[in-house]
C-alpha cells in the first residue's frame, strides 16, 4: 500500500525546499527556508510514528544538522548526501537506518559495480538505498548525478531495476525535471516503478496534493511510496497538510 514518506532537505545548513533541477555550486532556486532546524523535523516525524523518511544533505555545510536529525530519531531516517564507502558506516553508527548513495556509484558517467561492492561491504544490502534519481530524455529516464546536473548512461528501466534490486534494500527516485515545481508527478515514471519492482520504492517530485498520493497508489498498484516536499504545510506549502498525510498512512495500513 502506498505510504507517505517524510523528508528533511538540507542546503547551506538550513532546512529548505528547492527546485531540484536548479541546484549548482552557486546555490539553488528556493521555495522555502525553515525557521526550524533539522532536529525539530526529526522529532516531529518520530512523534507521529512516520517511518522510512530521509534526510538529504545537498552540498557542503550540512553535517551538523544532519547528525542532529539522526540523533533525534535513531533508526527512523535514512541519510543521503556525499555517502561513500569510507563514510557510510559512520552515518549508520550515528543513527541512520539506511544510507542513500548515488554519485559515488559512478565514475566518468559510467556505473561502477566495483564501487557498489565496496559500499555493500560497509553497509550490507539491508541498510543500503540506491538513489536512482533521473532526468527524462526522448529515450526514457536516465540516472542523474552530481546534484542532478550530470545525466549518466544508465537508464531507469525495468531490466536495470530488477538487476540493481539484488544489491540494496530500497530505491529512492527523484524525478529531477519536476522536483520542487508542484506541477504534478511524472505519471509515466511512477507507473514504470510500480511494475513488479522487487524492493520498496520511494518516488519524489512534483507532488502537490492529497490527490497525488491517491494517484501514485493507483498508478503503481500500491507498490510505490511518495515523498511530498514543497506542497506540504510544514514547508510553507498550501497543497496538503502533514495531518492529511498521517491520516492517509493510517487508512492504508488498516485497509
Give structural notes.
With 255 residues, this protein is an alpha/beta fold. The protein has a single domain (4-254), classed as TIM Barrel. Helices cover 29% and strands 26% of the residues. It has eight helices and 16 strands. The chain has helices at residues 38-47, 63-72, 88-93, 113-123, 158-164, 187-193, 210-220, 242-254; strands at 4-5, 7-11, 14-18, 30-33, 53-58, 77-80, 99-101, 106-107, 110-111, 128-131, 134-137, 140-145, 150-155, 170-174, 200-204, 224-227. The strands form three sheets. An eleven-stranded mixed beta sheet has the order 1-16-15-14-10-7-6-5-2-3-4. A three-stranded antiparallel beta sheet has the order 11-12-13, with no helix packed on it. Helix 6 packs across helix 7. The mean pLDDT is 92.
Amino acid at each position: 500500500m502506498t505510504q507517505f514518506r517524510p523528508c528533511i532537505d538540507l542546503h547551506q545548513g538550513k532546512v529548505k525546499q528547492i527546485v531540484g533541477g536548479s541546484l549548482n555550486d552557486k546555490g539553488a532556486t528556493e521555495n522555502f527556508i525553515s525557521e526550524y532546524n533539522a532536529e525539530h523535523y526529526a522529532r516531529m516525524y518520530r512523534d507521529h510514528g512516520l517511518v522510512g523518511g530521509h534526510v538529504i544533505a545537498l552540498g557542503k555545510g550540512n553535517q551538523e544538522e544532519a547528525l542532529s536529525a539522526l540523533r533525534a530519531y535513531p533508526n527512523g531516517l535514512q541519510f543521503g548526501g556525499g555517502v561513500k564507502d569510507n563514510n557510510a558506516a559512520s552515518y549508520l553508527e550515528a543513527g541512520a537506518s539506511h544510507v542513500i548513495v548515488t554519485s559515488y556509484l559512478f565514475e566518468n558517467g559510467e556505473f561502477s559495480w566495483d564501487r557498489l561492492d565496496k559500499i555493500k561491504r560497509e553497509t550490507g544490502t539491508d541498510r543500503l538505498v540506491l538513489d536512482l534519481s533521473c532526468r527524462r530524455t526522448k529515450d526514457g529516464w536516465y540516472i542523474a548525478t552530481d546534484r542532478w546536473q550530470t545525466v549518466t548512461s544508465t537508464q531507469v528501466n525495468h531490466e536495470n531495476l530488477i538487476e540493481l534490486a539484488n544489491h540494496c534494500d530500497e530505491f529512492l527516485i527523484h524525478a529531477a525535471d519536476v522536483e520542487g515545481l508542484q506541477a504534478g508527478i511524472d505519471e509515466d515514471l511512477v507507473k514504470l516503478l510500480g511494475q513488479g519492482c522487487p524492493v520498496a520504492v520511494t518516488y519524489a517530485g512534483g507532488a502537490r496534493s492529497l490527490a497525488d498520493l491517491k494517484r501514485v497508489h493507483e498508478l503503481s498498484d500500491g507498490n510505490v511510496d511518495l515523498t511530498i516536499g514543497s506542497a506540504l504545510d510544514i514547508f510553507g506549502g498550501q497543497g496538503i497538510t502533514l495531518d492529511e498525510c498521517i491520516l492517509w498512512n493510517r487508512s492504508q495500513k488498516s485497509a
